[in-house]
Specification:
Blueprint: H1 8-16, H2 21-27, H3 32-45, E1 64-72, E2 77-82, E3 103-112
Antiparallel strand pairs: 1-2, 1-3
Helix pairs in contact: 2-3
This protein binds zinc ion.
The site of zinc ion has 7 residues, from loops.
Length: 123
C-alpha cells in the first residue's frame, strides 16, 4: 500500500466532514496509522486548516473534552469551561455573580462524559 499517495485535498475534505479516521483511511485506501500521521504533519504546517477534534474514532462512545476549571471564591462555586484552541479565557465569568473578580484558576484536564453525567443537564 503506497501510503504517501493519499490525495491531500481529499483527505482534508473527509477530515472536515467529521468522519472517523478509520473510515477515511478505508476510503482513501490507506491505514489508520498513516492517515493519523499525515494529519499530524499537515496540522504542524497548517494548524488552522486542521482543527483538533474532540471525539475519538472507534469504540469510545464518550467524547473526551479538555475542560478548564475555575472557582469563584465569592460564590463558593466550581465550574468548568471547555478548553480548546480558540477559546478566550479572559471572557470567562462566574455563572452566579457574572464577574471574574473572585475567580481562581484551578487548572485543566480531560473530562470524559458518561451517560450518567450531570454536565449540561441544567438541574
Ligand atoms: Zn461568583
Amino acid at each position: 500500500m503506497a501510503k504517501d499517495m493519499v490525495d491531500r485535498g481529499q483527505l482534508h475534505k473527509l477530515f472536515l466532514s467529521g468522519k472517523p479516521l478509520r473510515e477515511i483511511a478505508k476510503e482513501l485506501g490507506s491505514t489508520h496509522g498513516s492517515i493519523r500521521t499525515m494529519i499530524y504533519h499537515e496540522r504542524l504546517r497548517n494548524p488552522l486548516e486542521w482543527p483538533v477534534r474532540v471525539t475519538y474514532p472507534g469504540k469510545s462512545e464518550a467524547p473526551v473534552l479538555m475542560m478548564h476549571l475555575y472557582e469563584c471564591e465569592d460564590c463558593f462555586v466550581n465550574f468548568a469551561v471547555e478548553d480548546y484552541d480558540g477559546i478566550d479565557h479572559s471572557a470567562t465569568v462566574c455563572p452566579i455573580c457574572g464577574t471574574d473578580e473572585m475567580l481562581v484558576d484551578k487548572g485543566f484536564g480531560k473530562f470524559a462524559l458518561t451517560s450518567t453525567s450531570t454536565v449540561n443537564r441544567g438541574a
